[in-house]
Amino acid sequence: MKTLIKIHPTDNIAIALVDFAAGSEVVFEERPITFLEKTKAKHKIALDDLNVGDAVYMYGVLVGKAVKPIKKGGLLTTENVKHQSHVTTGKTETTSWTFPDISAWKDRTFMGYHRPDGQVGTANVWLFFPLVFCENRNIEVLKEVFEKELAYHRPTKHQLMLRNLLKPTSGSELAEEEEPEGFFNTIEVKFITHQGGCGGIRQDSQLLAKLLAGYVNNPNVAGATVLSLGCQNLQIDIFKKALEAINPDFQKPVLIYEQQKMGTVEEMLSTIIKDSFEAIKKADQIQRQPAPLSKIKLGLECGGSDGFSGISANPALGYASDILSAVGGSPILSEFPELCGVEQELVNRCVDDADAARFLELMRDYEKSVVDAGSGFDMNPSPGNIKDGLITDAMKSAGAAKKGGTSPVTAVLDYGEYVTKPGLNLLCTPGNDVESTTAMAGSGANMIVFTTGLGTPTGNPITPVIKVSSNSELAAKMSDIIDVDAGPVIKGEKTIEEMGEEMLEYIIKVASGEIKSKAMLLNQNDFIPWKRGVSL
Fold first, then answer.
1. Which terminus of the chain has a lower count of CB atoms within 10 Å, N or C?
2. Helix crossing, 236-246 with 202-217: angle to 10°?
3. Please, which residues have CB within 8 angstroms of residue 104's CB and are 6 or more apart in sequence?
4. What's the pTM?
């Protein structure tokens, strides 16, 4: 097993794959290297002396500059290295692409739910949601009613533990109850709430309308029940127009109720329950059928990243993404603050010059809004990122971008826009994990793969989320949330390509309903819209 690696021939730093004590010596690229400080795995050392102002290169791109002298073998820290990235002004070339070998994949299928507009879902969900936060309580009441009566969830170990505490005289631990038998066969009933729809600028309500319309149009959704108060900014008509704009051929059942027109809460909820139950019964009749892999729109996410994410989990996901692009699928790369520093590569990969220009415009506008708020993209790495070796935003971004593989960029989308083109799509979202996964599902992602080095339970109410660990230690420690372990890449036991193919096989199994991802088993249904404006 290697103990120290350099990712790109032009890099002047290397990554420790194991812990090194101060004074440890290794021979690297036929040169002796002495570690000047204690260096933990995932952190970086200088391969040459760096003076103040010298550029720091990793992944073959500029990721920082030295603000203090760093000797050969010295540890890179937030004290001696600061964020710096390459300034991109436009396309310099059109990058050529070598297709991966897709002979084993071009005729593969998954078992999905075919929708009238030609999209194919990996799940069959009836979705309840409000147009405005004033209806959140009614959504919560409906959730309690449906989930209890449909026997979705047996009591958890924690519920049983509390029951024992409430009955201390029983003398013995209560036995776990049998798994309840659900009423429906294929349909899942899901509920989301949010804090938007009114009280902010009109643009926020319009963006929320586009997001919610995208959720209803997502092929994983069979139909929806929508609650409106009546007087809010996000009027029913705005939502309907957003849905029509996304899909003029929309044919799914959508039940909409306006409280201020219906009288008492009891009358409204009774009507909603009766109507929704009948619609859900019909949606439950939809069965899985074979579909080509080209029908998969794959959200690419990372969060709780560490110093190994960019050399194991992310590039392996990137290889799976390239295979999917090559067979006509649609990978989606988001989190624009985490693409800072790799703009030139992505611009050169854009098939259309207009998309290249739009990507740069979206990046610049986004960064300007962050600066105007008194911050900057350089503040993106979290304390956890930094602790585990990602000390600049460009360093974090260069690793995060590996999720998008090497395929051409066929479309650049702003937040709320829907994916319609095969190939790699760039979607403008925040780096915030849940805001990003929320946005990708709203743009049509019917599967999401989420890589992590530190661990996160994030899931989504309509789209299956698969978790991939960058290291085997995390996979063992948090086995209840990790689906796939990319740690063997670090150990030298598997190649990036082998790991990527293993990942794609797992995606197909979850997409076909053969297995549930850990986030699905945990019933992790996170939903946070991006609020771009201010409150009024």
1. N
2. 50
3. 501
4. 0.94
